[in-house]
Amino acid sequence: MAVRFWITYAASLAIAALTAPIASALSFLPGRLRMPVAVTFAAQLAAAPLVLWRFNAVSAAAWVVAPAGLPVAAALMLLGFAVLGAAAAGLPAAVPGALFGALFRAVSAAASVLKGAAFPAVTPPLGAVLLLLALLAVIARTAGRRRAVAAAGYVAIFLFLALRGVRGPDPSSFSLEALDVGQGDAFLLRSADSAFLIDGGGGFSGAEDFGRARLLPKLLDRGVRSLDGVLLSHPHPDHGAGLFAVLRDLRVRAFLHGDGEDEGGLFARLDAEASGAGIPVRVLKTGDRLAWAGGEFSVLRSGGRPFKRDPINNESVVLLYVRGGRRVLLTGDAGTPAESEILEADPSPARVDILKVGHHGSRTSSGAGFVAAFAPRAALLSCGRRNRFHHPSPETVATFRRLRIPLFRTDLRSDVGFLVTPGHLLLRERGRP
Description:
Elements: H1 2-25, H2 31-55, E1 57-59, H3 62-88, H4 94-114, E2 118-120, H5 126-141, H6 144-163, E3 174-178, E4 187-191, E5 194-198, H7 210-221, E6 226-227, E7 229-232, H8 237-240, H9 243-249, E8 251-252, E9 255-257, H10 266-276, E10 281-283, E11 289-292, E12 295-301, E13 318-323, E14 326-330, H11 336-345, E15 354-356, H12 368-374, E16 378-381, H13 394-402, E17 407-409, H14 410-413, E18 416-420, E19 425-429
Parallel strand pairs: 5-7, 6-8, 7-9, 9-10, 14-15, 15-16, 16-17
Antiparallel strand pairs: 1-2, 3-4, 3-18, 4-5, 11-12, 12-13, 13-14, 18-19
Helix pairs in contact: 1-2, 1-5, 2-3, 2-5, 3-4, 5-6, 7-9
């Protein structure tokens, strides 16, 4: 609410201070259009940096639509009054009604076309946003060469902030981060310009706006505007509801999920979302391999025979990522029955560097034998603070403590992860909750 107040306040100040200079620069426009266009441009100049900083959004169309909106809105209002007046007077309203309908349809069609001109952008530094606002003050208070230099500087800086990307770790390294999405999972792998997302969090209601409110800002804060792959480990909303916004708003090269039962139709809905955006869909099966960022994912389990207990969680895609001798195991919500099958297939697995703890630390996952067999150097656990399931369970925490494996939790540390270099595991945190 406070941010919206400051956006409105900044726009109002800009209208008061910048309308006259902009109107002067727009002397080529007809007199009746000059002031309305100057007013809307002034408001946009002040609001755009704040919208970019707070909402990670850039609307190129707004610079065109806002000036055009005033005369169009006025025309719609006049036609609307004409229809109401004709009806009240008992006169035919067919002509003004037809004109109103035609103009409304034209506006709707234009909005549909211009929708693609809005795009998500990386969160800019607050200092850069303040610099843009300071340049607007220079434009308002100076003239001539200084005003022109300030205007050119504003345009250059804003375009840079709107279009820039932020690289991940050095190409010789990669990172794995547990994003704090409450009681759910969202794990981000990055290396240089490559990024891969495993699960996307979400509320248990399955509301599709979760990703726009919670997940996308975290990705854009990190400079992630495109993803090589998005994987849903299993069809539960606390892992998948946030992915709708990701598939809609970011550049995604592939959407992947397991081949188990589609509880609630979540796989099908996300498949349709991906297909509608032109994103290829791939169903992963046990034994599949997938190259990424100089390493390889191996699918240790996907779907498989159903278990009577916790069948959907136990169908989770379990991934092993190996690169340069480093190994990361991501287990979704797989429980002890699935863990036992994985160990049956490979009773003596190689040690992993990082384990993503299964099912938010539930007592039905992370069996002592499974954890001891993979012997992770560190473990990441995602769960909500004071969640209703009381995750993680004391038994699970005790297992990691007994095996002397450091356990890092989102409910205690918020966003937490590791930079994996050829020689080290380096802890990374973005702030305690």
